[in-house]
Write a structure and sequence with these properties.
Blueprint: H1 17-21, E1 37-41, H2 58-64, E2 69-70, E3 79-80, E4 83-88, E5 95-100, H3 114-127, E6 140-146, E7 150-155, H4 162-166, E8 196-202, E9 206-211, E10 225-230, H5 234-242, E11 248-250, H6 255-263, E12 269-284, H7 294-303, H8 306-313, E13 319-320, H9 335-340, H10 345-354, E14 361-368, H11 376-389, E15 393-400, H12 402-410, E16 416-421, H13 449-460, H14 469-482, E17 485-498, E18 501-502, E19 520-521
Parallel strand pairs: 1-10, 1-11, 14-15, 14-16
Antiparallel strand pairs: 2-3, 4-5, 5-7, 6-7, 8-9, 9-10, 11-17, 12-16, 12-17, 13-17, 18-19
Signal peptide: 1-26
Pfam families: SBP_bac_5
Subcellular location: Cell envelope
Length: 525
């Protein structure tokens, strides 16, 4: 899923071989004698109930819940986890059957059986929570069980991506005794069957994970306990890393902190710089009187200078992006550059004047203050500078913390707003399907019959994903022509760690979720 290979940029005087291979060169005996491994991130969960989140909450879910399929270390295709086996049983990719491992249990000892799997999937659709993952199950008709160990998924259309969907943390298996069929669970307790139990949780502060004694899956746990600390900003997180209060940092490292880590001779810190597939983009709300006009959206697309954003704001720690599908995935294109070329005020003015718009266009841009890194506010200041500098727009900036921000965009309150996307699974489909249709991940309906009714169904009938390029490129071109979504940049993945920690890079699955069980300490030299 990476867009290109990159080398490790060494911060420590010690070579980073162990982080690259995921295997320590040193003895791992008594690796937890120094206490739990502490991981810092700026991406806190929005809810502890998997039926309610289609966001970075999945980072926690992956470690405390199980899914039927997941990604063992080194795999880029889903493999059985809670399941013993899974496969399509017909030639049209419309019937998918899974057999559970025998004797599966949740952390509290309750049986994990076929009924629990059906309950977990059905409640996602029944609850249909705003911002929840029900949109991932658009191809699912119904779920059936056969005995305690067999689950059959009947699809309403061919969908070769369905195994990828089942591997997302959204499809986490929950205990029917603890999770209502018709509503989200509201407390801070979790009962899953994953590698860890959630020992304690303080919203916005930390999650303490301890080894689950009932776990039965592919994870080979390298540690007994992990504490995840949630930070509001990168600088505080990096200070905690330098002060030995945190062992590993992931998600949310600011550009200035990355540059400082690359340049500074920290003899006890290492930085892994790898390519990634997370993206940042703008969403235009058709309910707004200005944002609904194609000429306005296209004029914005004609002015925005992605290169300036990547260089001035992010210090070249991200790359300009001209497609919703990032580089490195089959089906990537450069449609926005092909159609709009380099930023041009003259072309933007012509687009507006041809539509009869001669006044400065007033737009309000919204962004979240605590989700996508410390540079987010600076990026929106740069967007404001570029657009107002053209003489064609008047931009008002507004912001909210993530939990309030989500509610606002789900209610359609924002004319233009910023979003980031970490892939559910490494396929071009996942950078198109979640954003289109009447019910999408943005809370902003984007009807496109050609994409949802023709291109996506046609591509999903193809089990060889390399054969979907034409459909994916055509879908992206429709998005370019509509200019309802405007890609800005593609990120890289940075993991900073104390030099006594191994497994950092190998801990990332293909959707760049951290598998905490891969982290461990080097204990002897």
């Amino acid at each position: 899923m990476f867009n290109r290979n990159r080398f490790l940029r060494k911060v420590a005087a010690i070579a980073s071989i162990s982080l690259v291979t995921g295997c320590s060169l040193f003895s791992d005996d008594d690796s937890d004698s120094a206490g739990p491994i502490v991981v810092g991130t700026t991406s806190a969960p929005s809810t502890l109930d998997p039926a309610g989140a289609w966001d970075g909450s999945w980072e926690l879910y992956r470690n405390i819940f199980q899914t039927l399929l997941a990604y063992p270390n080194g795999s880029t295709t889903p493999q059985p986890d809670a399941a013993e086996s899974c496969s399509f049983t017909d030639s049209t990719s419309r019937t998918y059957r899974c057999k559970l491992r025998a004797g599966m249990k949740f952390a509290d000892g309750d049986a994990l059986n076929a009924e629990a799997v059906q309950h977990s999937i059905d409640r996602i659709r029944t609850i249909n929570a705003p911002g929840g993952p029900a949109g991932l199950l658009g191809s699912l008709d119904r779920v059936e069980t056969s005995g305690d160990r067999e689950v059959v998924f009947h699809l309403n259309q061919s969908d070769a991506t369905f195994p990828f969907v089942l591997a997302t943390p959204a499809m986490s298996i929950v205990d029917p005794d603890d999770y209502p069929a018709n509503s989200l669970r509201k407390d801070d307790k979790v009962y899953g069957s994953g590698p860890y139990e959630l020992k304690s949780y303080e919203e916005g502060k930390q999650a303490v994970l301890t080894k689950n004694g009932n776990y039965d899956g592919f994870a080979d746990r390298k540690n007994d306990e992990v504490t995840i600390r949630y930070f509001q900003d990168s600088s505080t997180m990096v200070k905690a890393l330098r002060d030995k209060q945190v062992d590993v940092t992931y998600r949310g490292l600011a550009a200035d902190d990355i540059i400082a880590l690359q340049k500074h001779n920290d003899t006890d810190l290492e930085l892994v710089d790898g390519a990634g597939t997370d993206i940042s983009y703008l969403v235009f709300n058709p309910k707004d009187s200005w944002a609904k006009q194609p000429a306005v959206r296209k004029a914005v697309a004609q002015i925005v200078d992605r290169g300036a954003i990547a260089h001035k704001v992010y210090k070249d720690t991200v790359d300009p992006l001209y497609s919703m599908v990032p580089k490195g995935l089959t089906g990537h294109s450069t449609g926005f550059f092909d159609d709009f070329g380099n930023p041009s005020v003259a072309k933007a003015r012509s687009i507006l004047s041809d539509a009869g718009i001669t006044q400065r266009v007033p737009l309000t841009f919204w962004y979240t203050t605590d989700r996508y890194g410390s540079e987010t506010g600076l990026m929106f200041q740069e967007l404001k500078r570029q657009l107002e500098g053209s003489g064609l727009f008047t931009i008002t900036l507004k912001s909210r913390p993530w939990k309030d921000y989500v509610v606002g965009y789900q209610k359609g309150q924002y004319p233009v707003f910023g979003r980031g996307w970490f892939p559910d699974f490494p396929d071009a489909d996942n950078f198109i399907a979640p954003f289109v249709g009447e019910h999408n991940a943005l809370g902003t309906p984007y009807p496109s019959k050609e994409i949802t009714g023709q291109l996506l169904p046609h591509s999903r009938a193809e089990s060889d994903r390399a054969q979907t390029v034409k459909d994916m490129e055509q879908a992206q071109q429709i998005i370019v022509q509509d200019a309802r979504l405007l890609p800005l940049w593609q990120g890289r993945q940075y993991v900073a760690a104390s030099d006594d920690i191994s497994g950092g890079e190998q801990a990332l699955d293909p959707s760049t979720i951290m598998m905490m069980w891969m982290l461990h300490r080097k204990t002897s030299w």
